[in-house]
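User: I'm putting together a small comparison set for a docking exercise, and I want a reference complex before I start. The sequence is below, and the ligand is DAU. Could you produce the 3D structure with the ligand included, as C-alpha cells?
Assistant: Of course. I'll restate your input first, then give the C-alpha cells for the complex.
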Amino acid sequence: MRLLVTGAAGFIGSTYVRLVGDEHDVVVLDKLTYAGRRENLPEGTNLIEGAIEDPAVVREAMQGVDAVVNFAAESHVDRSIDDQEAFARTHVVGTGTLLDAARELGVERYLQVSTDEVYGSIESGSFTETSPIDPSSPYSATKAAGDLLVSAHFHTYGIDASIVRGSNNYGPRQYPEKLIPLITLNALHRDPLPVYGDGRQVRNWLFVEDFCTGIHTVLTKGKAGEAYNVGGPDECENIEVVKRVIELTGGDESLIEYVTDRPGHDRRYSLSSEKLKAELGWEAQVHFAEGLERTVQWYRDNEWWWAPIRSGEYREYYEKQYGKSLR
Ligand code: NAD
Ligand code: DAU
C-alpha cells in the first residue's frame, strides 16, 4: 500500500512509520510544529512539509495514495487550556480537509488516530466504544469533533473510515512537555518534579509500539464506520509514576513538588480493548514496568535528541507553565 501518514514527525506517528516503513510505501505530511521534528523520522523518509488544513498541499500529498492515517494534532492538554485556536484548526478543519480530499480522490481507506480523552473521566470500570462522548478539555473537545466528522463522512458519503482511540502513550521521542519525559529529564538534572494537585489521578499507560501495532491492525482489518479502543495493560496513579521514575534515575523524592492542579483535570482514564482483542486479535505486549525502564534508558542514551529541545522553545513554555512555582 501507499500510505499517507500525517503528523508523523511527532512521537507516535514516527514510531508508526518505523513499524510499517519497510512493508509499505510511506509519504509523510507534517507541519513541523514545535513537536514535529525531522530527526524523529527514519533517514530517507518522503516528507512533505505542510498543514492538513491546507487543501492544495493535502491534494498534492494524497496523489496515488491507497490509505490515510491521520496522526496530525496539537497533542498537549495544558497548551489547549492556554489557547485552543490551533487545536480547533488542526483537529476540526484539518480532519475535514483530509476527509474531503480522500473522498474526492477515491482513497480506499481512512484511519483517524484519536484518544480516550473524548470519553471524559471515569471513576470506576472502563470505557467501551459505546460509552458517551463527553470531553473535558479544549484538546479533547476538538479531538471529539474530529471523530464526529469522520463518522459523518462515513454515514453521508460512505467513505471507508475507522477511528482508533488510544490511552496514554509513553516511550522514546515523546516531547518533554508530557509527564513521563518531563519527569525523567528533570530527575536526571536534579530539577524539581511538578505534580499537579494531589497526584492521585490515574492514567492507563500504553507503550507507544503497542499503540502502533493496534493502529495498523485497525487500518488493515477494522470495519468501516467503527471505532476501536486501544488501551494499555496497566493503570497507575501519577505520584506512583513519578516515584518509579525517581527510582530508575537514582533521584530522590525531595525533588517532588505539588503544584496547582490543571483546570478541569480528568481524574481517571481507563479503556477496555475487548473489542479489538475479540474481533481483530490485538493485545498489548509491553507492561508498564518494562516499558518505563526502556523509556528512561532511551532518554539517558539520547541526549543529542533532547538537549536542543530543552534549550529552545521549550524553555519559554516551561517558564510560562511552571514559572516561579518550581524554584
Ligand atoms: P505529537 O505532538 O508528538 O506530534 C504531533 C505531530 O503533528 C507533530 O509532528 C506536528 O508537527 C504535527 N502537526 C500538528 N499540527 C499539524 C497540522 N495542522 N498539519 C500537519 N501536521 C501537524 O503528538 P503524538 O503524541 O505523537 O500524538 C499523535 C496522535 O495520537 C494525535 O492525534 C493524538 O491526539 C493521538 N493520541 C496521542 C496519545 C498520547 O498519549 N500522546 C494518546 C492517544 C492518542
Ligand atoms: O489519554 C490520552 C492522552 O494522553 C492523549 O490524547 C494526549 O495527547 C496526551 O498528552 C495524554 O494526555 P494527559 O493529559 O493525560 O498527559 P500528560 O502527560 O500531560 O499528563 C499525564 C498526567 O500527569 C495528567 O494527570 C496530568 C499529570 N501531570 C502532567 C504534567 C505535564 C502532572 O502531574 N505534572 C505535569 O507536569
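The mean pLDDT is 97. Residues 170 and 207 are 5 Å apart (CA to CA).
User: Thanks, that's exactly what I needed.
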